[in-house]
Amino acid sequence: MAVISVSHLQKYYQLHQKEPGFSGSVKSLFYRKYYDAKAVNDISFAIEEGELVGFIGPNGAGKTTTLKCLSGLLYPTSGNVFVLGYTPFDRNNAFLKQISLVMGQKNQLWWDLPAMESFLLNKEIYEISDAQFKKTLKELTELLDISDVLNVQVRKLSLGQRMKCELIAALIHSPKVLFLDEPTIGLDVVMQKNLRDFIRSYNQKYKATILLTSHYMQDVRELCKRVIIIDHGKILYDGLLSDIVKRYTKNKFLTIELEEDIGREKLEKLGKVTNYQFPKVSLAVPKALSNKIAATLLDSFPVTDLNIEEPQIEAIIRDVFSKQ
Amino acid sequence: MKKYLRVLSNTWEEMVTYRLNFVMWRVRTVLQFLTMYFLWLALIPKGTILFGYSQTLMLTYILGTSILSAVVLSTRTHEIGEHIYRGDLSIFLIRPINYFLYWFSRDVGDKLFNISFSVVEIMILLFLLKPPIFLQTEIIFIALAILATALAVVLYFLFGAILGMLGFWSPDVWAPRFILFILLQFFAGSLFPLDILPKSLYEAFQLTPFPYLLYFPLKIYLGQLPFSTISTGFLIDVIWILIIALFLQFIWHKGLRLYTAVGR
Ligand SMILES: Nc1ncnc2c1ncn2[C@@H]1O[C@H](COP(=O)(O)OP(=O)(O)OP(=O)(O)O)[C@@H](O)[C@H]1O
Ligand SMILES: [Mg+2]
Asked: Residue ranges of chain A with pLDDT lower than 50?
């Protein structure tokens, strides 16, 4: 059975329209016009145990809303959600003990106390044994390289340090299902990489099921085999990342270095010249012909260097969104 | 259970870091006490009786409200409304912890801190003012007064929690709190014992939940209520607690369905 299964999930937020200005405020005191914001509009998918799935889409697509429904924070407008066999909104303790929702911008740490106090509270909340707690804490602090600030008041930590402590607090109970909402936000490049490594090994070591959103394509590319692309509350694509790359890649990019300035006209016959700055030239060529064209270039032109590049995932995703 | 003890001790530690704020708050309560103390001292000279109160009884009542306020009225529930409105509730909904027990633990932490200060203050005041004090010797009255105080703690918590639920609907949780606070000062009997009011007014008040917060436990301690009144009092007290608890449960579930977990 799938660990996460979502069928025809809808979540509408009720909003009221307020006219601008003071008279608008007064009016809205007596009369409010409500309308629905369809944040999630009939989505279905299933995720098996141990999968690490990337959930991507532009701002306001409905990613966070979906994660909130999956973790039991929001009451779905309609549709069914099951996580580990539970209905999240019931917030059964056995369910809560096995999940975690990590959000980039919210904190559970006690602001005026050292982070350690918050960890200890979670130890009790999740009923973790002393030995297990020590072990997990050691692993997490080493991995996130943060053991030196655990006893400093949280308010005095830097943003990145606080984020790391938040992560520890969220993972101290070794959840089986992890919802990560932009976990790498605010971390430096090195830490982003560390965290990705950590997420990968956490996924493999504990067979944890992970659903991750991120605006950093690097996260998705390195971690997720499968992606679900969502926009305006609807799923546009659900499948292997490699498939969508194949499907949307019509062109490859050749970058060459020329020995002499031969002018762009001659090259235009082979493909679309996207950049001509002697000695560097970039060409977009049909995917199927890329090898042949590369060979032609090497044979018949004064080329000293040649590179074939796949298009960036960012570009592909942009393509997907513009195709709707 | 242990988790709630942790919440309690964390709350205590938090208060230690804000001790200056806290001391200012205590100064305010001491000043209020002194005002009432000297007012009644002037109104009831030694040996006279006013509204059925001798000087000793009245001063004991005033001193009693001072301590009892620390026990019953110190609370953190005023933070609930904003906590919900800002979306901080989310952090609790995703963990296996009861949101109300969490706040109740915080309340107890807050109360213990307040009580420990209050006790020291009272010691000092007793030493300086040497007021005549009535000491209850009947165990039964003391026991019933403690029971009534425990119920008062629960009742006041439920009040605060209900007001906090407004956070599901509106950011304006401050005004209703303020009104409640004013009502309490008056109806709970923190300024004067309620039985100095006209009889009909006094009897009407007994049907509201307010007298059970301070007045009722104190009067039991003073041994001034007959057992029949005490038992009716407990009955009304418990009925109010049940009504408010059920109502709280109702709006909590209603609120959760509307909750949009803003932020993050
Ligand atoms: N609490 C709320 N009340 C009303 N509308 C909301 C609320 N939260 C989100 N929305 C709306 O629902 C839609 C989806 O929001 P959501 O936060 O799920 O997007 P997202 O995909 O996580 O975006 P981002 O990448 O910016 O985090 C948006 O149009 C947003 O304005
Ligand atoms: Mg989001």
From this structure: none
Domain end (from A199, A217, A245): A245
Do A125 and A253 lie in one domain? The reply is no
A130 & A264 share domain:
no
Q: pTM of the full predicted structure?
A: 0.86
Q: Are A262 and A302 in contact (CB under 8 A)?
A: yes
Question: How are beta strands A251-258 and A280-286 bridged, if at all?
Answer: antiparallel
Output the six-digit token pair for B155.
Answer: 């009742």
| Total structural domains within chain A | 2
What residue in B sits closest to A68 (Cα-Cα)?
Answer: B261
- Rounded to the nearest angstrom, the distance between the alpha carbon of B19 and the centre of ligand 1 is 40
- Asked if residue A23 and residue A36 are part of one domain, the reply reads yes
Write down the ipTM of this complex: 0.84
Query: DSSP strand E in chain B: where?
Result: 49-50, 53-54
* A contact test, residue of B9, B90, B94 with most A CBs within 10 A: B94
For A72-129, where are the alpha helices, taking DSSP H only? 93-96, 115-125
- CA A60 / ligand 1 centre spacing (Å): 5
Q: Which are the contacts of A230, defined by CB distance < 8 A and separation ≥ 6?
A: A43, A55, A56, A57, A61, A62, A63, A66, A236
Protein residue whose Cα sits closest to atom 19 of ligand 1: A60
Give residue-wise pLDDT tens across range A274-291: 888 888 888 888 888 888
Which ligand sits closest to the CA of A231? 1
Which residues of chain A does B14 touch, with a Cβ-Cβ cutoff of 8 Å? 110, 112-113
